[in-house]
Amino acid sequence: MRYVTANGVNLSAIGLGTWQFGSREWGYGTDYAQKGAVEILHRALDLGVNVVDTAEVYAFGRSERIVGRAIRERRDEVFVATKIFPVLPVAPVVRQRAEASRRRLGVDRLDLYQVHWRNPVIPVASTMHGMRSLLEDGSVAHAGVSNFSLDGWQGAETHLGLPVLSNQVQFSLAHPRPRVHLVPWAAEHDRIVIAYSPLGQGLLSGRYGPDNPPPGVVRSGNALFLPENLERAAKLLDTLREVASGHDATPSQIALAWLIHHPNVVVIPGASSVAQLEANVAAADVVLAPGEVDALTDAAESFDPITGLDATMRIVRRRIPIRL
Prior knowledge:
This protein is of the alpha/beta class and about 325 residues long. The chain has helices at about 30-45, 60-70, 90-105, 125-135, 150-160, 180-190, 215-220, 225-230, 235-245, 250-260, 275-280, 290-300, 310-320; strands at about 5, 10, 15, 50-55, 80-85, 110-115, 140-145, 165-170, 190-195, 265.
């Protein structure tokens, strides 16, 4: 395992995202939630993974409970990160919700407590006031944000009056924008960028194409898997396969290796099985040559998927055919 050290913490460059733990929308089933998820997490710890990320909104708290059950006997091996869903995130509510997450996780302290999204109505100053009180009494070790712009991240830190350790954002070869501003700032200021959906929910595995769309409710609502975007991703996927062939690796492993090549970046892919987890962790051993990094970066920046309202309308029309 490769590790990232920032602001006094030592984090595995490859962590484990647990959105799927207990979530019906992924379609993994009861056996996965009751047994498979725990086996995956235990194997992750065996392999040196210490970052385990969850959220109160994942399966309405069930993910936190599954994580808590899995780490009960191995608490000292885990950097537990969870997130508050920002419905009325005023200071007293931030404290109440942190305590609820701690109970579900069965821990005395949250290692990282993150604001899942910025609430456009509630001033971030109030949210950070609640976070500050949790830091001061030891209920939370580090504060973080998620889906914040650089200005928003810096503003949150100003209001907190202490370091905001991390910003968890969508970051991958299919969504490379954070490398422009967030990653350089994090590296310069001893902070961390946590990359979620580091494999584009499976797009970067190379398994899917216009004639082979992915199954499941979650991906059907992801614009990356529109037939037009799967066609537009062809060059990026070809570059991934070419680099992978030179390392006896998979496209997914190369996609993760590209991310952790950047300084101060931690990735949190999910895993549907122990085998997939082990493959993800093995990406930490892949060392990309400068030319390979450049080729992947160029391919990522050339990828121009359909996004925004246009993508949303196309998804709606696929789900509910509109006849004129």
